[in-house]
Write a structure and sequence with these properties.
Elements lengths: L7 H4 L12 H4 L4 H8 L5 E4 L6 H12 L3 E5 L5 H17 L5 E5 L6 H13 L3 E6 L3 H4 L2 H4 L3 E4 L5 H14 L7 E4 L3 H7 L3 H18 L4 E4 L1 H8 L11 H15 L3 H13 L4 H16 L5 H16 L4 H13 L6 H16 L14 H5 L38 H14 L6
Parallel strand pairs: 1-4, 1-5, 2-3, 3-4, 6-7
Helix pairs in contact: 5-6, 9-11, 10-11, 11-12, 13-14, 13-15, 14-17, 15-16, 15-17, 16-17
Length: 431
């Protein structure tokens, strides 16, 4: 392969653990992973970190350090058959060598439950040492039996010092870049573009160098922030719609609305829109929030959020940004109540604890004569036959009689609800 055709980020992959940059908390001399490598006793592990933090590189370097056979599968294009083929080969290899091979699975969170299940036996028996890489929280994306057999290491975005080391090393040591006299006069734009992702930074550097070389025959290149931003054309937003940052930004958006901060809400909305987030995903999350966090404090919030979803579906971008902004600000500035959310969760907990309690006879439907004869529907009082369309009768099963699931919050709307319930129930349920 033509060396020049290999991307700079690939050319600059470290060849040994000693060349590896970053993640000192786990691979430094006091790190727990470093100690495992020193003893040669490596458990199966999950490397959880953002893109470009060095997960794939670290997995390969671990295999080199321990002198283990290395299998590499990507969860995007591998299935159960591929896993079983590796396990069969690993089993044969282990018969000749006591050291289990390393199976590295990139983006392990994309494996289905069945695919992850297929790994369990081999991991448990020590046929392979699994190294899984994921940008997602493994607590949610890796099945519990497999997760319990792995040690999770969290990798952080590379900091400015790490990125500077990698940048300087590339300019000085790369076979292609070293052909030119490169003066990096300003680095902030490259760091900002990277967002802690070494691969993004090196890709940006390579693009900038290629453009400037084509414009500058004498091969002397000055790199400044303005040149970088001009060539890249825009300051790249650190946002991966399929990765960890996707969840971080939507989480910040929701929490800002819940916290009644319209300014932060609009900011995170802009972050998502600039990154090309699915606008219907944003609208769906606001529908959920309208019920969960605004609730009965402002029942119109749910109507507006649902109308927002319909409107952006019909209108599309770029005008949809205005509708999303109106809804986000409306929700952020609405009074808040999670009483309906708490009520249903408390009721679900009661169902889990008490099981299928029989429905009181007077509330049961009686479509047949037999059912009527045994008391179904007997003594039921029809509310509309009474004053205020209300009659005091028991609706809950006797075993959980008087249990209160809904507790009105102290906003003006639910104070009125509490007053109304108190008038009806005369102290029952504590209203």
């Amino acid at each position: 392969m033509d060396y020049q055709s290999i991307p700079l980020a690939e050319r600059m992959r470290p060849k040994s653990i000693e060349e590896y940059v970053g993640q000192e908390h786990i691979i430094g001399k006091n790190g727990s992973l470093f100690k495992s490598l020193e003893t040669g006793l490596l458990p199966s592990i999950i490397l959880w970190g953002p893109p470009g933090s060095g997960k794939t590189t670290l997995a390969y370097l671990i295999s080199q350090k321990l002198n283990r056979q290395f299998y590499h599968l990507s969860a995007i294009n591998s299935g159960v058959k591929d896993v079983r083929d590796v396990i069969d080969n690993a089993t044969k290899y282990k018969l000749m060598d006591n050291k289990p091979p390393i199976l590295f699975i990139d983006e392990i969170h994309r494996f289905s439950k069945a695919q992850q299940d297929s790994l369990l036996g081999a991991v448990e028996k020590g046929i392979i040492t699994l190294i899984g890489a994921t940008t997602e929280n493994p607590s949610f994306e890796v099945i519990s039996p497999l997760l319990s057999r792995c040690h999770v290491y969290i990798l952080n975005p590379l900091d400015k010092d790490n990125l500077e080391t990698i940048l300087d090393r590339a300019v000085k040591n790369d076979t292609e870049l070293s052909k030119y006299k490169i003066n990096i006069k300003e680095k902030d734009a490259l760091f900002q573009i990277s967002g802690g992702d070494a691969r993004k930074m090196l890709n940006a550097l390579e693009l900038v160098v290629n453009v400037l070389v084509s414009e500058n025959p004498d091969k002397e290149i000055d790199i400044t922030n303005d040149k970088v931003l001009d060539i890249i054309q825009k300051n790249i937003v650190l946002y991966d719609k399929q990765g960890e940052q996707h969840y971080n930004i939507i989480s910040a958006f929701i929490k800002s609305i819940r916290g009644s901060d319209p300014n932060a809400a609009v900011y995170y909305l802009a972050r998502m829109l600039a990154a090309g987030e699915d606008i219907e995903f944003i609208a769906r999350r606001m529908i959920i929030l309208a019920a969960e966090d605004v609730g009965l404090a402002n029942p119109n919030a749910l109507l507006l959020a649902n109308n927002c979803f319909q409107a952006i579906h019909n209108i599309g971008m770029p005008e949809a940004r205005i509708i999303l902004s109106e809804t986000a600000i409306y929700l952020a500035t609405s009074p808040k109540s999670n009483s309906v959310y708490m009520a249903i969760d408390k009721a679900l907990q009661s169902v889990q604890e008490t099981g299928d309690i029989p429905v009181p006879l007077h509330l049961r439907n009686a479509p047949t004569k037999l059912m009527k004869d045994i008391g179904y529907g007997k003594a039921y009082q029809y509310s509309h036959d009474y004053d205020n369309n209300f009659v005091h009768q028991e609706y809950l099963p006797n075993e959980i009689k008087n249990t209160k699931f809904y507790e009105p919050s102290e906003n003006s709307k639910e104070k009125e609800i509490r007053k109304f319930l108190s008038f009806l129930w005369k102290g029952k349920y504590g209203y």
